[in-house]
Structures are given as structure tokens and as C-alpha cells.
Amino acid sequence: MPTKGQPMSSKPTAETRRTVQRRDRYRCAMCDRETGSHWSGDSIHHREPRSHPFDRLHQPENLLQLCGSGTTGCHGWVHAHPARAYRLGYLVHTGKDPATIPVYYRTGGWQQLNKDGTRHP
After folding, report:
1. Phi first, then psi: what are they for 80, rounded to 5°?
2. Sequence spans of domains, the chain
3. In sequence order, what are the beta bridge partners of 34?
4. Cα separations in angstroms, 21 against 18, 24, 52, 61, 88
5. pLDDT tens digits, residue range 45-96?
6. What was the pLDDT predicted at 77?
7. C-alpha torsion angle, residues 68, 73, 74, 78 (rounded to 10)
8. 3-state secondary structure of 82
């Protein structure tokens, strides 16, 4: 967390990234494709957009492992279909606590993302 007057980093820490990847089993939350290989691409998606910085921006409950980039794969789909993405928990409205908004996983159904980097039905 930056101190007063310091800018917030635009990316989660390597530790938080690993926590999210482990929680999501190194798979895309939407399509369940294995992520991390050079052909599939992968990205950590911010459920509450980075354009609306807040204290939880880079915390596990606000992050999902998705295939693709902001314009390709499932990550691109989220940004191209925001109304549906909000209904499925892939996006969170500004000011809402991501830990209170469940996410629909292709395998596992509705899951609550916890502040400690775990998830549960």
C-alpha cells in the first residue's frame, strides 16, 4: 500500500499474483483453459477497474485469472460485454466491496472470493 503522496502501483505484487493464480488453479475463471502458456496468454483481471483506484485494488478478492488480454480471450470478452460481466461477478461496480460479490466459475459455479486469497461456494 503506498504511503500518502505516493502513486499506487498499476499491478499487483508478484506474491498477490501467485496467490490468485493458485486460488484459480492456474486456469481461466471463465473458460477453465489452462493459463500461463505462451499460446493461451493470461492476465490478472481487476474486477473493480484500475481506473477507479481504491484500497483493495490489488487485493485477491478484486482479482481473477483470465485468459487473453484486455482485448482478447475471456479478458477481452469481459470488457466487450460489461452488463453480463457485472451479472456474473467478473466486474464490480465502483464502491462495492468485491469480497461481497460472488463470481461465476465455469467449474465450481458461484464462488465468494476471500481477502485471504481463498474462495468458497
Report:
1. -85, -20
2. 14-120
3. 27
4. 5, 5, 23, 12, 20
5. 999 977 766 677 889 999 999 999 888 999 999 999 999 999 999 999 988 9
6. 96
7. 100
8. helix
